[in-house]
UniProtKB/TrEMBL annotation:
One Gene Ontology molecular-function label: oxidoreductase activity, acting on paired donors, with incorporation or reduction of molecular oxygen
Name under which the protein is recorded: Luciferase-like domain-containing protein
Gene3D superfamilies for this protein: Luciferase-like domain
SUPFAM superfamilies from the UniProt entry: Bacterial luciferase-like
Organism listed in the record: Cladophialophora chaetospira
Pfam families xref list: Bac_luciferase
Basic and acidic residues composition bias: residue spans: 487-500
Domain Luciferase-like: residue ranges: 53-413
Stated family: Belongs to the NtaA/SnaA/DszA monooxygenase family.
Amino acid sequence: MAETMNSPASNGDTFSGAAPKPKKEFILNAFVMNTPGHLAPGLWRHPRNNTDQYKKLSFWTDLAQLLDKANFHAMFVADTLGPYDVYKGPANVVPALSSGAQYPVNDPLYLVPAMASVTKNLIFGVTASLTYNQPYALARRLSTVDHLAEGRLAWNIVTSYLDSAARNHGLHEQIPHDERYAIAHEYMEVVYKLWEGSFRDDAVLADRDTGVYIAEDGVRQILHKGKYFEVPGPHFCEPSPQRTPFLFQAGVSEAGNGFGGKHGEAIFIGGQTPEVTRNTVESIRMVAQSEGRDPEHIKVIVGINVIVAATNDEAWQKRENHLKYADQEGALALFGGWTGVDLSGYSDDEDFNLTDSLRIRSIVRRWSSTVPGTENLPWTKRRIVEYLSVGGLGAKVIGSPTTVADELERWAEISGVDGFNLAHITNPGTFEDIIEFLLPELQRRGRFRTSVEKEGAAAREVFLGAGQKRLPEDHPGSKYKWSAGEKVPRYQVEEQKEVPGSEAQAERQPVV
Ligand SMILES: Cc1cc2nc3c(=O)[nH]c(=O)nc-3n(C[C@H](O)[C@H](O)[C@H](O)COP(=O)(O)O)c2cc1C
């Protein structure tokens, strides 16, 4: 299995016959979580690993400085809102305990101001669920942090997928999948109105001579009344540098892609091969186009796990060494949470490709059949544990700097992704290796930036270009913008037109 994780085509010559294309620099993010065992259950006790220090601010500020200095684009912090309790369940957290498999998990948003204060350019992409946070409150928390981070905040919008999260947030079971996305669309309308439409662009004067902090006609209620939300507003925070924080999104279903193609500005996807990933990339860009957006305004970033060392042999040895610390119970707890499947009733060596349960066969096959080079191998519990323990479900790239750089270039060429979300196995460890071995090779090939375009740029500027702090005009949130000189935001004028005789009333609406 070992050699098959990297494609045999990754020899650097793959495209030598084609006309040379200008090389695009990759976006590189570090993928982390505020927990001892993100995607490497059991590895917290590896001698190189310090993830048990996740509760200490210095653990995070050290990492942020390391990534900032190396010119990483962003730190992407995952988050969930309940434990992985399906395996040996229902509602059993015990298998996740020894390994710290995404349990316990601290809130990621609190980390950002401290990390921003010791860095200049790194962007912080923080996951927050819109299924379990009221829009008015979340809009306020995100604005506060966008202020403190001086615009270096991105929000990873998720609708959440764990029953344990639903049970602990007042629901007996999860809201059905597609309805979560229907709610999410209306939720975004509410937060766009708060962020973009309740303070006019020139509302905040902070004029010491006149004693006026905010112009009295510069703030309006949003008066949102929809199917799921009723929020009068106005927003409780003054506009932050980006107003709407740069929007990350991760979703793979049709409804998820529909949501991402409409609202997402950087989309995070999974995928085992660049060929399959290409379909996802194309589908996201098509949705964006159908929503009237420039598909190139959306950055698509694939999750990948890299183990790199001076030579191929050393990289593979590193993987073997990591596996010694892998925790089977923790890996199966993660698998249970991600898929909803409890594998506890099966022996270690049963091949799930042949198992009696149609449901389990199809779930395991759907994922395992895409892992390159394993088509004729049995997919047993043992193999699932081995695969998951060193970087989770994502694709694995293992080898020397040349091998890994070749493979990332192949991924980008075939799939059309803009960059990579790099998972870690140990921290410190994985990112230091990437910085020491891989980045110089990528930089030599013109594939990774050696400096930033603009010091202290906002998140949106880093991903879309200097000067682009606010939502681009083709983004659906832009229609809620309230420009200087407009008495009433355009969207409210449009909404009022739908209610006969109420245009004058819109102008008379009390400011707050
Ligand atoms: C790279 C990546 C990162 C993700 N991070 C999170 C996360 O931190 N929290 C979360 O609840 N879901 C996360 N997800 C899951 C997605 O939000 C989504 O639930 C999942 O991809 C299933 O997609 P669907 O809802 O469109 O079916 C992530 C997915 C991907 C591909």
